[in-house]
Design goal:
By secondary structure, this protein is an alpha/beta fold. The protein is about 35% helix and about 20% strand. It has two domains: about 220 residues, Alpha-Beta Complex (DHBP synthase); about 90 residues, Rossmann fold (3-Layer(aba) Sandwich), CATH 3.40.50.11030. The protein has ten helices and 16 strands. It is globular and about 60 Å long. The protein binds threonylcarbamoyladenylate (TXA) and magnesium ion (MG).
Length: about 325
């Protein structure tokens, strides 16, 4: 069913309009520092349901709940530990999502039926004033069609969701470019469920205990029998460009050479080829550009995307690599 999607700015007046839509049970896309989110009142099951429909998202995939005041986490979560408070003090507002036991008031629709809830305070003026204006926590997954690269520009959201949502707050391009780090704080050892700009080392430096990395993140092959990630979102095909995609991994010089060779070989048989090759160690830049590059190459209609692997075992490059592997369906060649 098609509806008219309002394109709003980040002016005070437009944010008020957007907040009004959320208050009355509608769904609105908005910028955050990581990627654009598609939001609804986190306490309104029916509103949250609309997000799943607009995205075509499986409804066992829980959402992140966004708040504008750190202390509002107590509306959503139980058992907030000292470690969590330390992480909140250091990293909020910012790209770190904490998973904690949920309060009974948080509907199953928001948490995908889990007894935990994921919460973060985004570092974006527009997002924060939207949440404040709506006077409720906002449940928001990334504002892309399910399976498409996450949106880092308003134009990406419009491309995917125009006609399916009530409004888009078309603000700035996202600074970070990949989604927040998700960390499960419910057990004795914190576990990174999704890597992001805030790394395991960053977390360890604040709370002084070891941080585990969900084993599914360390695999470079799809192994459906073994993959039972705790973050349900990690099991779905993700970020997929329309083109076939291959990652080339190995020593820097060799990777560039092999990409050049494969490009020429494919072009000889009439295929158009796009290349994603970031500067060595420029991991933040890679994070910022990766999803936008995928969409750009899709827009050009390339048949094949060749991407150079980032060599980083646990930092920001690792987080980008996690997205790259999923985009390519774990299609990887080693040189
Ligand atoms: O940066 C971000 O996190 C962006 C912006 C909009 O804030 N949001 C985002 O949402 O990436 P989404 O829905 O695309 O990804 C949320 C991830 C999914 O992998 C989901 O499975 C996981 O967080 N998640 C949510 N609630 C969870 C929970 N209670 N336990 C474990 N994982 C959870
Ligand atoms: Mg997403």
């Amino acid at each position: 069913m098609d509806m008219k999607t309002k394109i709003l700015t980040t002016s005070e007046r437009d944010i008020k309009t957007a907040a009004g839509i959320i208050k009355s049970g509608g769904i609105v896309a908005f910028p955050t520092e990581t990627v654009y989110g598609l939001g609804a009142n986190a306490f309104a099951a029916q509103a949250v349901q609309k997000i799943y429909e607009a995205k075509g998202r499986p409804c066992d995939n829980p959402m992140i709940v966004h708040i504008a005041r750190a202390s509002d986490i107590s509306q959503l979560a139980l058992g907030i530990t000292k470690s969590m408070v330390s992480l909140i003090d250091v990293f909020w507002p910012g790209p770190l999502t904490l998973v904690a036991k949920k309060k009974p008031e948080v509907p199953d629709e928001t948490t995908g039926g889990l007894d935990t809830v994921a919460v973060r305070m985004p570092d974006s003026a527009a997002a924060l004033s939207l949440i404040r204006g709506a006077r409720c926590p906002i449940a928001a997954p990334s504002a892309n069609l399910s399976g498409r690269p996450s949106p880092t520009k308003a134009a990406h959201v419009i491309e995917d969701l125009s006609g399916k949502i009530d409004a888009v707050v078309a603000g700035e391009d996202c600074r970070v470019g990949i989604e927040s780090t998700v960390i499960d704080m419910t057990g004795e050892t914190p576990v990174i469920l999704r890597p992001g700009l805030v790394t395991a080392d960053d977390v360890k430096a604040v709370i002084g205990v070891d941080v585990a990395i969900d084993p599914s993140l360390l695999k470079k092959e799809v192994d459906h029998a073994l993959l039972h990630p705790k973050s349900p979102g990690m099991k779905y095909k993700h970020y997929a460009p329309k083109a076939e995609m291959l990652i080339v991994e190995g020593r820097r010089g060799k990777v560039a050479g092999e990409i050049g060779r494969l490009k020429a070989e494919n072009e000889r048989i009439g295929r158009s080829v796009g290349v994603i090759l970031f500067e060595e160690k420029a991991f933040r830049e890679a994070a910022h550009d990766f999803f936008a590059r995928l969409r750009e190459l899709d827009g050009e209609g390339v048949d094949l995307i060749l991407a150079g692997a980032l060599s980083d075992t646990d930092g920001v490059g690792f987080a980008v690599m996690n997205r790259m592997l999923k985009s390519a369906g774990y299609n990887i060649a080693r040189v």
